Amino acid sequence: MAEQPQGAAPVPEEVQSNVLLTTVDWIYNTGRTFSLWPMTFGLACCAIEFIVAGTARYDMSRFGMEVARPSPRQCDLLIISGTVTKKMVVPIVRLYNQMAEPRYVVSMGACATGGGPFKEGYNVVSGIDKYLPVDVYVPGCPPTPEALLHGFITLQQKIRTQSVRTVPWYRKAYSSVVPIPVLGPDIFSTRPEAVKRVQEINMQRMMATRAAGGLAIAEMQILGADEFIVIRNSGLAQDMTGWRLHSGAGDQSYSFPAGFVLMPDAEVRVHSGPEAAVAGPNDQVWTKRHMWRNEGDTANLMDADGNVVSSFSHQGN
Ligand code: SF4
User: From atom 6 of ligand 1, which residue's Cα is the shortest distance away?
Assistant: First the structure.
């Protein structure tokens, strides 16, 4: 019989050979260590070596890593295998943010780690660690499959040192969302001031796009006892939650239902009048009362902030 630790409760004899005592950390870490699911993701020549590591000769499934998944939501290991260009780092960070915790990053090869032969290139990121927290670096150009396997084993050793009491992802209010880098005109940095500047530029562009095309009242029609307003969207998809129509003549407002999205190049018909009826999936019924009848009666379309986006006067039928 094993010696009883001092102060421990006695274990009944009949269960001593059937009970295994261990720590929560050991169970968690063993599960994580031998079920690392890498993302099916490659960037350049290093990715070929990553692929080779999965073949029969090297067989990374021996370490529980054969389940390469095509969706970041099913992965917990991101292998940066190849040259990271400035254009590509944006989706890489987005993919990383889509992975669930706990998640790990292996920087494979000279390019991913520091730019490699393309360091100082106008289009190459000089190290993925500037954007993502890297757990293991695998040197080489390219690293051999054996080197990558060694990187996996090193990562497994790191996971075994973690504790559920100290890992950040079990803490309240913890968020590991990485700011997505913005590729702007000659600006590329995640420094807050640079990101702010690029956001300003993007906002200006978006406003210009909106000015060029957007939502507008295209028609006000009366068909017998049914009258309707046609709103067309010639800009980007627009969530119309909080948007409303206001009839100047009837001094009545119609609010769009929450979550109603008007897609680009689509239109919505908002009906009023005693025979107001829905005729299509994009139709909305405003009221059974007439909201305008006379020539010159006006309808205003207002966004969620109350700004008048479009104004239209009934021209008479
Ligand atoms: S480190 Fe070498 S092998 Fe790997 S992507 Fe860069 S150039 Fe290709």
Answer: 111
